[in-house]
Each structure stands twice: as structure tokens, then as C-alpha cells.
Amino acid sequence: MNSIDRKVIVVASKSGLIKMISKAYAKSTVHNILPIPFFKTDTIIKQFLDVYYKNKSLDEVASDLYRIIDLDTEIKLFSPRDAVNYFKFNVGLTPPDGSIYIQHPIQQQRYIVPEEFSIVLSREKEAAFRLLASSLGAKKLSLIHAEVRTKRGIMGGTIPISEAASEIGIKASFGNSNSITRSVYSEFGLPRHPPHVPEDLKPWVEMDPDLRTMAHDRVNGNLLKNIIKLEFKEDLGIGGNIASKISSYDINSSIKYKALSHSIWSFEVEYHPINI
Q: Among candidates 246, 276, 214, 197, which has minimal Cα distance to 99?
């Protein structure tokens, strides 16, 4: 069923939907969607919803969930069995009844839990960067500078560079003063092909401005050395915005949301000469 293309999917039976509504409504600031009485505690909401939805259809229950979370994008409901048959999830993961997922921006049959969306994409971007460098004929990648812009609370200091690096999978040496130590990040042998962008990396190059600049400058400018800046932050396009909003409702309660630190990493890329 490759024709299915959904930005957001809900994996749930009717009982799973009711559990999701219970969690979302407890966090919601909207009070007029359901006639829930008294205080909005989890216990009261769950007891009320079991009775309220007893004779309602699956579509009616799903519609209420969509109105509560108000994502301003199309959502499609799938049973746990159908979701496994139609889509790809993390290796070994069976989507639990009552969960929500966001479509991977490049691999459209693959879905990611909102709580891990930005971190997963950031790690894949870092891997795409190294693979692209090799395909463009890089000789050496050197990490020369890093900047973290995320702070701990209003009065707190910035997140340590080492912590930001671990989030996105960057391996580097750090000084005692939370500073980056210039280091060789990767080295490559002589290329077997002229500089090019492999088919599987083209979607990354088209989507990401950092990688697009890198590919353009090398392929069209015959550069031997340049500086590439990679930026990692929470709002990675529409998917990042949706992920942040969904996570605020704590629907996938088994996974705790942690916002990705905003960081910028500068690499010096040295290329092998192009033999024309």
C-alpha cells in the first residue's frame, strides 16, 4: 500500500483512542470540546470518557481526539495490525495501541515517535554529511568550532557542548572549559568517482540548506577546501513543529520528550583535487 502518504498517523483501537483523549484533554487548554464535569484529573476524565464514548463510533472518537490536539494537518487512523503492515517503524518496534507517529520527511513509509523526531533526524543528517563528503571527494573533515545556543532555563547557563554532541551523534574532543578542540573528524582515501551526489542522498541535499550548499560549492566550484556549518535545532521543518506540539500532550507516555539543543558545528572540508 505504497500510495499512503500521511504526515501524522494515529495507531489505535477505540479503547486506545479513549486513553489518548484522556491524556490529551488533561493537558489541553480547550475546555468546550467535551462536557467533562468538575476537575480535570486523569481519573475523572477516564471514568467519564468510558461512559461517554460507549455508544459512539470509532470515527466519532477519533474526530474528538483530532480536535483536542489541533495539529492543523491531516491525521489518519490505523489499527495496530494495519500500521505494521503498511508502514515502517524503528527496528523491533510494534506500535502500541494508542500511539501517534510522524512521517519521516525523506523515507515516506517510515514513521517516528514525536518525542524522538528531531534527534533521529539530526543524527541522520550528521551521517548524511559524512557520506556526502566522501561522495564529493573529500580528503579530510576537521571539526574546528562549535556553538550551543540553548540555555538551561531563564537564568541558567548554556547546555554543555559535550551534551549537545551526544544528542546528535557527533564524536569530538572537548576542553575543560566546555570548548571544542580542533580535531580530525574523518579522513578519506582517493575517490573512485568524480564528485557527485548519490541518489539516496539527493533528498537530504534538497531538504537541508547546509548540505545543499556543500554539494553545490564542490560540484560547481571545484573547491579544494571550504568551511561547512551544520545547524541542529528542534524545529526541523513542519515535522519538527508538529512533533513539539504533539509531545506537549504526553500521549506516548512511555517515552519522555527532551527538546533537542540548538547547536551549530563548523567543519573544514579538504578535498582531493579533481583530475579533469
A: 246
Residue 10 φ then ψ, to 5°: -110, 130
Mean pLDDT of 94-123: 89
Of the pLDDT bands very low, low, confident and very high (cuts 50, 70, 90), residue 31 is low
Question: Of 202, 2, 211, 242, nearest to 108 (Cα)?
Answer: 2
Tell me the domain boundaries of the chain. 8-112, 119-234+254-271
Three-state SS at 269: strand
Reported in sequence order, the residue ranges of 1-137 that DSSP labels E, i.e. its strands, are 8-11, 75-78, 99-103, 111-112
Q: Is there a contact between 215 and 132 (Cβ–Cβ < 8 Å)?
A: yes
The CA distance from 38 to 124, in Å, is 46
Q: Which helix (H) or strand (E) holds 104?
A: none
- On whether the CB atoms of residues 109 and 133 are closer than 8 A, the answer is no
